[in-house]
Batch of 2 targets.
Target 1
Amino acid sequence: GENVEQHPSTLSVQEGDSAVIKCTYSDSASNYFPWYKQELGKGPQLIIDIRSNVGEKKDQRIAVTLNKTAKHFSLHITETQPEDSAVYFCAAIPGTASKLTFGTGTRLQVTL
Amino acid sequence: GAVVSQHPSRVICKSGTSVKIECRSLDFQATTMFWYRQFPKQSLMLMATSNEGSKATYEQGVEKDKFLINHASLTLSTLTVTSAHPEDSSFYICSASQLAGGNEQFFGPGTRLTVL
């Protein structure tokens, strides 16, 4: 089955700096890679996703890049703000299934 | 669009009782719904996948008779934790997909279950 690794587990940045979270996956058939933001006591919220036929996708301060050859994808947050503080999860779905495999999560803290 | 609700948001029950959690897709038809469990500071663990009108598919290690899942309509799935024990205390989250085998999953706000 699919295995998704996520690094780092914790990340602290100053307000205005950029944050990068990286994930690797094992199943070359995976074709959908979403990123979720989870605030304390709440369900995950989809913030951006990318499909295997695209190398990069951007939405305002958030971008995701995908390297299919190396089987890794990354989340980039620019101009971080205190409200970006949360736990971020990457995930992958193999091509033949609908089940998400989640990474272990990254706790991002944006300090003033 | 694509809003998923859960009820209740929090529940406290005594050991040995059963608890039902509802998951509803408010503005779309969900052919597939998923139930996850999340322990503190951990990732989401998939418990089961349910398709409308058919039996749920449980992940390895998840007891079917303890976690009863019903997906009777395209907008409602329920998870019943039977004979709950303190070790069942957790954060339960559902998600829903709009298309059968579709990729995007929209998550509910979660239900915090505490078993005394």
Target 2
Amino acid sequence: AQSVTQLDSQVPVFEEAPVELRCNYSSSVSVYLFWYVQYPNQGLQLLLKYLSGSTLVESINGFEAEFNKSQTSFHLRKPSVHISDTAEYFCAVSRINTDKLIFGTGTRLQVFP
Amino acid sequence: DAGVTQSPTHLIKTRGQQVTLRCSPKSGHDTVSWYQQALGQGPQFIFQYYEEEERQRGNFPDRFSGHQFPNYSSELNVNALLLGDSALYLCASSANAGGPLGSGYTFGSGTRLTVV
């Protein structure tokens, strides 16, 4: 079975500061990895994903995540956050060739002016 | 191009009642998955429908059932509601079930169910 651990339930940060949201996973088989973002009263939006190839993946709005197989991690980073990045961020995994996502409990990123 | 549409957006039911939630997938998608997101938690997989059949199921009791129609839309039914069923129910659609997950899910905004 797969599981996902998001170590920080809340991360407060000031605008323009860097941020890292941590995600560790457990699986005995190869997995795909995802980060989703959820704004208040909305559904989930895919931020970025790792399927194969380069271990560093980037999103269009400045976030990046690096797949580290030895540490079973997929931490999300952004060098300079905006107020508009305030949201809940979920890390998720799925077994290769399945559609079932296993989510972590989420990290609430709160960006202050 | 419309994304995933869910209805209703909010719903209040009494314990013991039954509820039906509806989902229309994104154009071009043929697979619908349902997730339950309790307050303060990550979404949990309920089940997935493809070709009008339940293809995968998570760890949810038989009180949770579903259906997929020929136009790929889907319903989630919950019988004998419990207070613990209060949650945001998310529908996600995808294309080519069984293929690589690279095509990805598109999530709807969810139905907020409150059981009193």
